[in-house]
Amino acid sequence: MSGVIKCQREMVKRGSHAMAANRFADLRVWQTARILARGVYRAAERQRLAKDFALATRMKRAAVSIGSNIAEGFERGTRKQQIEACYIARGSAGELRSQICTAHDVGLIDKRAFAWLHERCEPCSRQLQAYISRLRRTREGMPGPKYLNPIEHDGKPGPGTGQTWE
């Protein structure tokens, strides 16, 4: 496999082996965030949380933010931007964990919903930290998708590509 193609892919752990992720939806951490967001929406509809519009809205926004930032980072042009987006996602996961605790403490979600949400939010944070660590370790060798295409993102030929406007 050429170095360019290798740089284009992210590695994802699946069991004991690694596989390349060509899309953010292939990332296990994004899949975890997606399941968590569905659970938050379900709790906001079916639990007493539905009566607290402000907290339900904040929880839904935080849950959606986790997956959205993972996806945005994956699509960004540099590894540094990807790492920054993942840190934002991790902050949203922490915010959501706090909100889950608050919702339970004030009786807006029952013990079962609390356990389900917490058991998915905590691993999501751990997966994000592991993913960030991996991105940081591979930052030099795999700078990001912006550097794969010989044509710069602004449409101008990149240096040393041999391409001209004519």
Keywords:
166 residues, mainly alpha, de novo design (two linked rop proteins), two-stranded antiparallel ribbon, 2 strands, 6% strand, elongated, disordered C terminus
Task: Characterise the protein shown here.
The protein is mainly alpha-helical and 166 residues long. The chain has one domain (25-142): de novo design (two linked rop proteins) (Up-down Bundle), CATH 1.20.1440.60. The chain is built from 5 helices and 2 strands. It has helices at residues 3-8, 28-46, 53-75, 79-105, 111-137; strands at residues 10-14, 17-21. It has a two-stranded antiparallel ribbon. Helix 2 (28-46) runs antiparallel to helix 3 (53-75), helix 2 (28-46) runs antiparallel to helix 5 (111-137) and helix 3 runs antiparallel to helix 4. The chain is elongated. The two termini are 32 Å apart. The model is unreliable at 1-18 and 157-166 (pLDDT under 50).
The structural domain count equals 1
Weakly predicted, low-confidence segments: 1-18, 157-166
Give the percentage of residues in beta strands: 5-15%
Terminal-residue CA separation: 32 Å
Largest sheet: 2 strands, antiparallel
